[in-house]
Structures are given as C-alpha cells and as structure tokens.
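Q: Structure tokens for this one, please.
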Amino acid sequence: ATEDLLGVVGSSGRRGRGGYGGRRGGSRRGGSRGGGGSSGDFLINQQGGIASTNAFGVNYSDNWGKKFEITGSYFFNMTDNDARNESTTQFIDREGVSEIYDELNTSSTRNFNHRMNFRINYQIDSLNSFTMRPRISFQDNSGISQTLGETFFRNQILNETDNTYDSDLSGIDFSNSLFWRHRFRNTKNTFSVNFAQRYNNKKGDANLYAQTIFFDGMANPDTLDQFSHLDLNGWQLNTSVSYTNPVSERAR
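A: Here is the predicted structure, written as tokens:
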C-alpha cells in the first residue's frame, strides 16, 4: 500500500471551478479565488479517473554471526492518474428562459513512494541487548489540472473561464528508536532505556492561474495569478526509562 505523507494520494491537481450565471440570474461567478501560502492549498480532493500502478517490494532477514539479527524491507510504488470530465448544466427560470453552462475538466497526476524499514538486534552478552529500528519514507507528487467553462444565454456567450492549477510536492519522514535492555543476574528483573527520534519535512510549489471573461457589451476579464510555497519541518525526541519486577515466581 502507498503511504501518504502529503495528503494527495489518489487525487489529481486542484480543480478550479468555472463561472456561470450572468445578466438574468444576477450571479456573476468567476474562477477560483483565495489567499496564498497556507498548507491547505496543497491538500487535494480525491477524484476519479484512469490510474496505472507499478509496485515493487523486497524483504530481508539474516543473522550476522551469533550476536547480530537483522530484518528489513523496501517498498516502491508509482501511480499515474488521468481524468477527464465534461458536463452541461441548464438553468431555467419561471419564464422558461434558460442559461446553459458547459464545463470541461482535465487532470493528470503522478505519485512516487519509497518506504524502508529495518530492525537490528545486537545481543551484547547474556544480560544486555541493544535494538535499533530505523524507518524512512519518501513521497513525490506532481500534478496539473485545467477547467474550461462557458455560459450561454439565448445562444449568446455571457462569460467564459479558464483555470489552471499545477503543483510539485515532496515529503520525507524519518524515525529511529534505540532500545537498551539489561537483565539482572540471578533475578527476573530488567531495566531498559528507549530513545526515539523523528523528523519530517514537506515542501513544494503550486501555481494557480484563473481568468474569467464577462461579455457585457465588451470583454471584461477577471484574473487571478497565484503562487504558493510550502516548507514545513518537524522534530520529535522522546526518552523513556522502565524497570520491571515480577509479582511472583510464576508471573513475569
């Protein structure tokens, strides 16, 4: 399965909504508007379409001598998704006069995912053991989508819209834990220390160009040209210490 670090798996580029309505409905809606720079600009709604997937995975397990035990896995996934949707909407008022809105949406997305996990156990001696568990995931996602829309009234065009959105995002997530356990000689008591760390980063760029033209005797364009940049970093450090003592000879 694909691990989603960016919130974009199974989806295509952000789709801009076209405008409809005009001189009769009193509703003049243009292309997508909005502020820039928030991470929400990079979370993309799920869409259908034609998808092709390629995946590869491998597992590894071995003992290096008498003290080292190593297990690991690597997984790769690549997905291409293409979608195309055409729609026609007709609005009819009480007089039986209607407006027609035609819309064409196309989108294309490519997603790469790498994931590696390892577990390394070192038996220092009969009383002490050391375990390390590194894990890393990497995701790269790029996509582009376009919306073309036109509104007609009595065979005359009222407005048209052209929205294009493209993005190129990447994310990495790394974690590792170091665990040391000591068993006391001639007893069942144990003492252990665990140190865990985690780092994640999400970054990328997105561009939104939206233009709507209203034909009120002359062409009046309404244009939005927006660029967004995402760069999020996170660190986590955790340490825990534990001591175990059996409650009886038969309970551990």
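A few notes: The CA atoms of residues 56 and 76 lie 5 Å apart. Strands lie at 50-64, 68-92, 98-123, 128-153, 156-183, 190-215, 219-244.
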